[in-house]
Amino acid sequence: MGRAFVYVIVGGGVAAGYAAHEFVKRGVSHGELCIVSEEPVAPYERPALSKGYLLPEAAARLPSFHCCVGANEEKLSPKWYKEHGVELILGTRVKSADVKRKTLLTATGETISYKFLIVATGARALKLEEFGVNGLDADNVCYLRDLADADRLVDVMKSCSGGNAVVIGGGYIGMECAASLVINKLNVSMVFPEAHCMARLFTPKISSYYEDFYKSKGVKFIKGTMLSSFDFNSDGKVTAVNLRDSNKLPADMVVVGIGIRPNTSLFEGQLTMDKGGIKVNGKMQSSNSSVYAVGDAVAFPVKTFGETRRLEHVDSARKSARHAVAAIMEPDKTSEFNYLPFFYSRVFTLSWQFYGDNVGNVVHFGDFSENSFGAYWINKGHLVGSFLEGGTKEQYEAIAQATSLKPAIQDSARLERQGLGFALTFLKPQDSNQQSKTRLNLRDRVWDLP
């Protein structure tokens, strides 16, 4: 038993939805494309799960956040796929892949063959058991990666209103879930081993601002230690969190956000791996010419940095998916993927964006007593990264443009005084020809700011 398609996307997350949209925009014929997904619903915007989905009132629910509403484009409901002749094979796990034979074998025993495959398998949440902590079966220990996780988290939150929630991890998921827990009237404690929250991205000064804001909302931070074990009641529910520093935290529920691991097992031993993901070239093409890979599961050349990296964010998933489809459909017209790393988050009344790389010396600017401040990262004499809290659309575009050009910086003290104004100089209106010339000139210019 089997089916054959020209194009197959394995995985049903954000990247799959954006890839399907790009295929249709580029004229794929009815019946040529299918998506094979373990999830029971059509691809959706995962960021909604840690934001609007967890709100106590007017919460986001499907079909409102199917792809591609996150990029302000049309919503790809199940009806959209049907109307455009895209086959959705949902609730189906792919058991094995054979890239030489160009086939996938599902858990139900069906063989699906392809001419071109896009791997959009994403990543899975790391579990506590992988670090020697037991608690997988506890009803009140939650993770957040997919819709089923989010539904479970909502149910547990509702049953614990007014109780104690412990968040394990101080990264994206930890910070965004902690905010949602507070809004749902839980007493929140965050536990992580680092010296400050969002340690992979934020400077201590930036982290301090967000930690102070969270503290004003009642969140407690327990830093520099880790979870060692749980206490359970007779029903198997967690009642307390034991830490390595011997402290014990009462817990009515626990949310775990300790990182992710790319879903690459189907292709290990068949495709070249790098940085924990499937290695691809600038057209998102793997070591097998018929297989492309996108999103969290891929390591690709980041031209801005001159090195291969694996990035874990929705923006990269969306854009790499579109680029892979372009490279498949029009290989001669598609250039190398030129991506500026972009990260963002929105919690409470706060909203920040980051572009580029957080290496080198940091120059902070703005008013940290208000929610309007930022930072630049200078490495080897050039601007390589920019961060801004509380910006406008124009201001965020400015820091993105400035970072993409990597201008030379001569005087950090002057850059600090100029602050956001430095980035805004890159947004002066120009005609297209002049703008092209300006981009070349700005790249070589040494910024000796007044």
Automatic annotation (TrEMBL):
This protein's GO CC annotations: cytoplasm
Segments forming domain Monodehydroascorbate reductase 3-like C-terminal: 340-423
EC id: 1.6.5.4
Residues passing through the membrane, by range: none
InterPro entries (UniProt xref): FAD-oxidoreductase/Apoptosis, FAD/NAD-bd_sf, FAD/NAD-binding_dom, FAD/NAD-linked_Rdtase_dimer_sf, MDHAR3-like_C
FAD/NAD(P)-binding domain: residues covered: 7-321
Cofactors demanded by this protein: FAD
Keywords: FAD, Flavoprotein, NAD, Oxidoreductase, Redox-active center
Signal peptide: none
GO molecular function, one term: monodehydroascorbate reductase (NADH) activity
Family: Belongs to the FAD-dependent oxidoreductase family.
Protein name: monodehydroascorbate reductase (NADH)
Species of the source: Fraxinus pennsylvanica
Lineage: Eukaryota, Viridiplantae, Streptophyta, Embryophyta, Tracheophyta
